[in-house]
Amino acid sequence: MIAKAKNILLESSSFGRRSFMKLAGLTSLITVLPTFKTREAHARYILNRNWWKSRQIWSTADQEYKTVEYCVQHNFRQENGTIWSNLDNRWRRFEVRQLSDDFMKWGCSERYFYYDERINVGEEGPPTVMKNGGIHHGMVATYGNWIGRRDSSFHLNVATKGTALCPSRETILEVLPVLEQLKIDNPPDRITQYYQIMQGIYSDINNFDKTKLLTLELYTQPTGGTLYDAGYKETHTFANMMANPICTIGFMQQEHPQKNYFDPDGSGGYNDFPYGVHYEVRAIPKVIHCWAPQMGNEYDVFNYKDAEDPDAIFGYWVNFLHTFYHGGRANITTVIYNVCELFNNTPRDPGRGIRVVPPIG
User: Fold this and answer.
1) Which pTM was predicted?
2) What's the gap between Cα 9 and its chain centre?
3) Which among 65, 216, 240, 252 has most CB atoms closer than 10 A?
């Protein structure tokens, strides 16, 4: 029967309504994908916040055990390049795909020349004002946690998140020791060396895992601050992703002209991207929490070397960069956006809202 269920799924890559109805009678036999028996049960899951668990975990820095809360994303499953997401109390299958080379060249170019500008200016530390937009400021739309925080009548949310392209596992393992040693040595030109290393990563789109984007859930479960003082430990985005793991992310060109590092003009310069570059990434978010048992059992960082979940390395990476650059703690909840579709929304051909991943036709 399980084989029959898999065959039904393979009939349609989009996993439409008809295929789902065929599968509905077989779900009780597929133990790896438990679903809620009723919509009321799903509602209770959301209302009771059953994604939070408590445990004790060791802190190497403080040499003591700490009692913590960590989140468990019950509505998400991942296996062999396939993502399962429980949306509105229905399990759906999604294929993970790679971002297009055009998207990667646009994103990498923007970051490359950002670091180039910082190096040439010779300033130390983060700029006083970060330029808005571009690959670093994805606009993330989520929905589904209709109980909400009881501070709104809506369960649809859009928030701008500090978003990053995701280096490949091989790239991270190669670069991390260099950055970690740089942080330990702390030379006067530490930030300049950091810029140079990061610029080198962005000089080649093949340094990246094109199936993923990364961000931090900075304001979820803080120990203090405005959100915490108001009585909340979750952002709307976080609650939606936990209740309904699906999102779409909008990206728009930061400024014009924007140089294309991968398109030299033959005279020592670079040709520009067209005006108004605009992409939309549709993805299934995987939320990983540093204090979850499968993340390596360390309070202070994602202990990726001992973690059961291989994605822990991405949690360590994005937290390390954030603390290297901005300071603060390195155990912040991390979101891995698993890419499923990409649309080119640039207001001219070949854009105009056309899906480019997977290509049409």
Assistant:
1) 0.86
2) 27
3) 240
Express each pLDDT in 131-184 by its tens digit. Answer: 778 899 999 999 987 776 778 888 899 999 999 999 999 999 999 999 999 999
Distance of CA 152 to CAs 122, 145, 146, 238, 243, Å?
46, 11, 9, 15, 16
In this structure, the answer to whether residues 3 and 90 fall within a common structural domain is: no
Partners of 158 in beta bridges: 141
What are the pLDDT digits (tens) for 321-351? 999 988 888 999 999 999 999 999 998 888 7
CATH code of the domain covering residue 275: 2.30.110.10
Alpha-carbon separation of residue 111 from 106, 149, 163, 339 (angstroms): 9, 36, 12, 20
Average pLDDT value over all residues in the chain: 85
Buried b (16+ CB within 10 A) or exposed e, 336-347: bbbbbbbbbbbe
CA separation for the pair 289, 238 (Å, rounded): 12
The alpha carbons of the chain give a radius of gyration, in whole angstroms, of 21
**pLDDT over 70, % of the chain:** 82
Q: Which residues contact 297 (CB under 8 A, 6 or more apart)?
A: 57, 58, 303, 306
59 and 27 in a single domain? The answer is: no
Determine the pLDDT at residue 49.
Answer: 64
Residue 313's domain comprises 39-357
User: Same domain, yes or no, for 17 and 80?
Assistant: no
Is residue 5 scored above 60 in pLDDT? no
d(CA 208, CA 229): 38
